[in-house]
Amino acid sequence: WVKLRGNITERLSDDRYNFRDESGTVVVEIDHKRWNGVTVGPQDKVELQGKVDKDWNEFEVDVKQVIKLNK
Q1: Residue 63 near residue 49, CB atoms below 8 Å
Q2: How far apart are the C-alpha atoms of 13 and 23, rounded to whole Å?
């Protein structure tokens, strides 16, 4: 399980997004039901909680909870 704090910078597909923090960028998967009415833009800081989903030589984070943080 992981906890990430940073910004969702880009929507790649229906439930896949680019997430960026100080250490770099990773693809995250956020199912529609996980948003719980939260809306965020690229400038909004968020905390994502989920688990790492690893396939061969690539990985993404399967997000279970999205929390919008105060600036």
Answers
A1: yes
A2: 23
pTM of the model: 0.90
Domains of the chain: residue spans and CATH: 2-68 (2.40.50.200)
For 69, which DSSP code? P
Which letter, b or e, does each residue of 21-49 get, where b requires 16 or more Cβ atoms within 10 Å of its Cβ?
eeeeebbbbbeeebeeeeebeeeeebebe
Q: Cβ(36)–Cβ(43) under 8 Å?
A: no
Percent of the chain having pLDDT more than 70? 99
